[in-house]
Amino acid sequence: MKTEFFKILTNEKIAKDVYKMTLQGDCQGIACGQFVNIAIEGLYLRRPISVCEVSGDVLTLIYKVVGKGTEAMSYMTHGKLLHLLTGLGNGYDLSQSGQRPLLIGGGVGVPPMYQLAKELRALDKEVTVILGFNKEEEIFYAKEFEALGAKVYVATVDGSVGEKGFVTDVMKKLPDYTYVYTCGPEPMLKAVYNESKTSGQFSFEERMGCGFGACMGCSCKTKYGNKRICKEGPVLTKEEIIW
Amino acid sequence: MVNTKVTLSGLTLDNPIIPASGTFGYGYEFAELYDINILGSFSFKGTTLEPRFGNPTPRIAETPMGMINAVGLQNPGVDKVISEELPKMREVFHKPVVANISGFCIEEYVECCKKIDKEDCVGIIEINISCPNVHGGGMALGTSPEMAAEITRAVKAVTTKPVYIKLTPNVTNIVPIAKAVEEAGADGISLCNTFLGMRIDLKTRKPVIANKMGGFSGPAIFPSALRLVYLVYEAVDIPIIGIGGVSSAEDVIEMMLAGATAVQVGAANLVDPFACKNIIEELPAVMEKYGITDLNDIIGGAH
Q1: Does A66 touch chain B (CB under 8 A)?
Q2: Which end of chain B is more exposed for a tag (fewer CB within 10 A), N or C?
Q3: CATH top class, domain A94-203
Q4: What is the DSSP string of B53-78?
Q5: Domain holding B92: CATH number?
Q6: Is residue B87, in this structure, part of any structural domain at all?
Q7: Domain range enclosing B105
Q8: 10 Å Cβ neighbour count for B135?
Q9: Which of B23, B60, B202, B221 would best serve as a mutation to test chain A binding (most A beta carbons within 10 A)?
């Protein structure tokens, strides 16, 4: 964990209620699948946001406006300094991917898949990505994943783009993957858990107090004992999840 | 040069800053960031006789200038705390610590205290009879003077270290409870635990926290906690550790003027892991600003 000030470079709306913020600061030690915890003026608790991309000293976050904190973030502009705790959580373990990893992101579970896809592509893995959204206006980053050289499938619940249905409807048609990495709402994670034919890593969300393991606010039970989503998580392996 | 040293029941602290139980774990998350030996002491995560997972999640809700938690005393149980956590803690913190003990009946407190009393690193045993987040124990034991005194006597009978009783603010009148634990032999009082509170989500129309209610802490409760310290200081002669929303060196001084000999910093650690370090570093300059050369001179100074 580190504490650093980051300067906002850009902050723009990229889909319905979804914003992309780029920040400049010390990104050393930030791993894919981790999150940062952002102090926001006027709000007592920090806001945990997953890391979408790290490139040199530029950190990209994609967040959905769901409450006061993310709403305040959506109004922020270039030049503003934000105080971040970085390097939080365990992140994804890339060594398990095999040659043909399948990455599945749902809604704001999509962003952490991006840095992961980038790093897996750098290792010459054949990356397939399934992105799940409710409808067309919510879709973001499909082209960015394609630009990485990943095979991209989009599923929308209303069928407005790509496969009509859920990410698992696409999954059923893709039997040839070696490992699963996923992040998204819990019902989606559970469906992926049930549908997946290989092992995998699942990134969870929980309401947090501190975000760095001190308050025990986000504990969950696993087959390997109690874990803190913010510290021993947010990524849990398929084998340890209790469902 | 100013003097920041204070003494709690014979234990001299370099400064009065003590991270509060449940907001500092066993210290090592913070030791990654700074040398935590600058702290006066710290109160480690509340310990029970048996291991506890605690309450279902969500356990946390935000409030204006504060937060609500309903963790429910998650801890690995006293045996594992002694065999696994304390050895790791001693690697990063070399001063005597405050051992925070909780339970559901007198026998549990007694058994837990017998074990923790043998640990050399423990300087003070803090008896939590004020946890709002467990049923059938915790706070229920701290709301009557008779029961609070009974626990105090039982724990004092099996311990050699100073015993501080951590009281709940969720009572009609705290003074008789404070007096009762003093008469029962308590060496000091930790004042206070969290205030009961809740939040309701407007979208789901349900409580935010799975346990429905929880303990309210943070700067929002500072004036209320300060008032209790002020009231209890007038009623007892044993030292008080002031707790509740302390977030700055100024808050420390205010708490001490109300009657605290030391203070605990709780929720502030969770939003800024450097909170205690900043307070300790700012304290001498703030003392000078207000013409204080020795912190001991201001304890209860507002009376």
Answers
A1: no
A2: N
A3: alpha beta
A4: --SPSP-EEEETTEEEE-----B--H
A5: 3.20.20.70
A6: yes
A7: 6-298
A8: 11
A9: B60
Q: How many CB atoms lie within 10 A of CB A9?
A: 15
Our count of domains for chain B comes to 1
For chain A of 243 residues, list the mean pLDDT of each consecutive stretch of 10.
Answer: 96 98 97 97 97 98 96 98 97 97 97 98 97 97 97 96 96 94 97 97 96 96 96 97 94
Q: Does A43 touch chain B (CB under 8 A)?
A: yes
Q: Which residue of B has its CA nearest to A47?
A: B271
* Residue B20 resides in a domain: yes
Give the model confidence (pLDDT) of B14-66 as tens digits: 999 999 999 999 999 999 999 999 999 999 999 999 999 999 999 999 999 99
Residue B303 falls inside a structural domain: no
Residue B140 has pLDDT above 90, yes or no: no
| Spatial contact of B252 and B6, defined as CB atoms under 8 Å apart | no
pLDDT of B9 over the 70 cut: yes
Contacts of A220 in chain B (CB under 8 A): 57
Give me the DSSP letters along B73-106. --B--HHHIIIIIHHHHHHH--S-EEEEE--SSH
What is the token pair recorded at B153? 């006597």
Per residue in B268-298, pLDDT tens? 999 999 999 999 999 999 999 999 999 999 9
Retrieve residue B11's tokens. 């234990």
Q: What is the pTM of this model?
A: 0.95
Instruction: Note whether residue B291 is domain-resident.
Output: yes
**B292 Cα to chain A: minimum distance (Å):** 31
Give A219's contacts in chain B (Cβ within 8 Å).
53-54, 57, 59, 71, 74
- CATH number attached to the domain at A2-88: 2.40.30.10
Domain with CATH 2.40.30.10 in chain A: 2-88
**Dist CA A49 CA A62 (whole Å):** 8
Choose among A39, A207, A231: nearest Cβ to B60: A207
Mutate to test the interface with B, among A5, A66, A215 (most CBs of B within 10 A): A215
B-chain residues near A210 (CB < 8 A): 23, 269-271, 273
Confidence bin at B138 (pLDDT 50/70/90): low
Calculate how close chain A gets to B27, using CA atoms only, in Å: 8
The CA–CA distances, whole Å, from B59 to B17, B48, B213 equal 27, 19, 9
Position B136 confidence tier, pLDDT thresholds 50, 70, 90: low
Interface check B53 vs A, CB under 8 A: yes
